[in-house]
């Protein structure tokens, strides 16, 4: 409970900062997922349907013979079970409030959908507009089922619709045909066996080449991932080559604390892969731990960073973990190396060290200086993220300590692509007797 209160307080502070800088930053917590009814709320609803209307136009739905091979077999985890031609005008709440006080409110019939020979009645409970993305989210309770819910995303401009339905443990995905956006294909997703209690990864069925359909499916599933975590705060910055995202929630996911403390990086890569709709983490991404703090009573804070081409990215990501292993705060910055501009390093370690030593001597301008480096802070090559498109630039970083005149420590950065050098004063509290050092 105390951790939850801390998260709430942190959320209020961050929100205040963003509101204070409104001209610079976009609004936060305006994602439609914050307005969704929870799965528990949907399960507790017991609507009664008085009348129904077909959601699909039966005379316009495609026959199986019309479909191409790729439509019948789009993904190894999906099985085609039906087709449809959804009338999106029927995906609205049944009760329409009359603007005329002399006329009663209207009660519309509930839409019903047939999947693999079974008919399900949908009671639409919410319709939420996302003006930023120009889409509308529609949530429905499937009448008569404890575990029966449907959520659709509708493009306001094209009227394309993507749906995700959960019916008694089975998941069905509704996707538009690429050849005819007014027709849809209904797939049942194969169940995957899980070796742990971790929430399963959401799988995209559409192909990236079908850009508009893929975009809608991705947005719908991402919204559901955010909603099921019971969010407190969410913000993201999306670029072509990567994404930074921050989610604070009651239950983002589960990790094995014992493995984390043993420096098992697979717990981090597994978490980011399961949350790929938020983190945008490419498959087989590599990471390394930076720092783990905390204890089993209060929980742990874990800092880590991405590694590309065996070179770490300077930017640090972080997760906060409760004593029970629940992730309650996630901040990630992940780069897609296939899309990023990556500058090569033209300088070897030895050449970078010579440039750095010359630069620090020139910076101080004093004769007879004697410098050492410490084994505990060796010269390091890392990528620095540059510009709005998240290009990667290699940087050598060297920490020198002056011992002849006790001038303290200096940190020198050598840009590995151009050789540009920057010298800054650094704290000397890590320098002391008994430290392993190398004279230069």
List the defining traits of the structure above:
disordered N terminus, elongated, 7-stranded antiparallel β-sheet, 38% strand, 440 residues, alpha+beta, 9-stranded mixed β-sheet, Nuclear Transport Factor 2, Chain: A
The gist of it:
With 440 residues, this protein is an alpha+beta fold. 18% of the residues lie in helices and 38% in strands.
Major beta sheet, strand line-up: 1-5-6-7-8-9-10-11-2
Report how far apart the termini are. 54 Å
The major β-sheet equals: 9 strands, mixed
Class based on secondary structure composition and strand pairing: alpha+beta
Percent strand equals 35-45%
Number of domains: 3
Count of individual helical segments: 8
The parts where pLDDT drops under 50 for at least 5 residues are 1-27
How many beta strands in the DSSP annotation?
Answer: 24
Judging from the principal axes of the Cα atoms, what is the shape? elongated
In which range does the helix fraction lie?
10-25%
Mean pLDDT rating: 89
């Amino acid at each position: 409970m105390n951790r939850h209160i801390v998260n709430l307080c942190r959320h209020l502070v961050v929100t205040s900062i963003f509101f204070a800088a409104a001209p610079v930053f976009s609004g936060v917590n305006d994602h439609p997922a914050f307005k969704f009814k929870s799965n528990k709320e949907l399960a507790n609803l017991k609507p009664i349907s008085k009348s129904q209307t077909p959601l699909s136009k039966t005379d316009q739905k495609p026959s199986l013979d019309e479909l191409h091979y790729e439509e019948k077999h789009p993904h190894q985890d999906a099985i085609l079970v039906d087709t449809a031609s959804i009338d999106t005008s029927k995906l609205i709440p049944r009760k329409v409030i009359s603007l005329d006080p002399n006329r009663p409110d209207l009660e519309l019939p509930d839409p019903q959908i047939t999947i693999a020979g079974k008919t399900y009645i949908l009671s639409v409970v919410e319709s939420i507009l996302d003006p930023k993305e120009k889409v509308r989210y529609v949530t429905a309770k499937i009448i008569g089922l404890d575990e029966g819910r449907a959520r659709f995303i509708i493009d306001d401009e094209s009227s394309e619709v993507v749906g995700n339905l959960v019916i008694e443990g089975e998941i069905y995905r509704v996707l538009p045909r690429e050849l005819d956006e007014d027709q849809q294909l209904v797939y049942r997703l194969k169940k995957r066996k899980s070796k742990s209690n971790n929430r399963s990864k959401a799988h995209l069925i559409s192909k990236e080449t079908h850009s508009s359909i893929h975009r809608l499916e991705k947005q719908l599933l991402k919204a559901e991932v955010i909603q099921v975590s019971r969010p407190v705060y969410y913000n993201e910055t999306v670029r072509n080559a990567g994404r930074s995202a921050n989610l604070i929630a009651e239950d983002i996911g589960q990790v094995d604390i014992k493995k984390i403390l043993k420096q098992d990086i697979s717990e981090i890569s597994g978490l980011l892969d399961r949350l790929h709709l938020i983190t945008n983490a490419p498959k087989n991404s590599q990471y390394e731990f930076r720092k783990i703090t905390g204890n089993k009573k209060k929980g742990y804070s874990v800092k880590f960073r991405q590694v590309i081409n065996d070179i770490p990215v300077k930017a640090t990501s972080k997760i906060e973990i409760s004593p029970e292993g629940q992730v309650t705060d996630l901040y990630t910055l992940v780069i897609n190396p296939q899309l990023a501009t990556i500058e090569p390093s033209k300088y070897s370690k030895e050449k970078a060290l010579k440039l750095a030593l010359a630069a620090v001597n020139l910076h101080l301008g004093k004769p007879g200086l004697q410098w050492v480096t410490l084994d505990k802070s060796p010269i390091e090559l890392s990528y620095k993220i540059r510009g709005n498109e998240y290009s990667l630039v290699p940087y050598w970083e060297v920490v020198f300590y002056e011992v002849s005149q006790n001038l303290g420590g200096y940190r020198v950065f050598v840009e590995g692509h151009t050789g540009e050098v920057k010298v800054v004063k650094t704290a000397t509290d890590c320098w002391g007797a008994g430290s392993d050092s190398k004279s230069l």
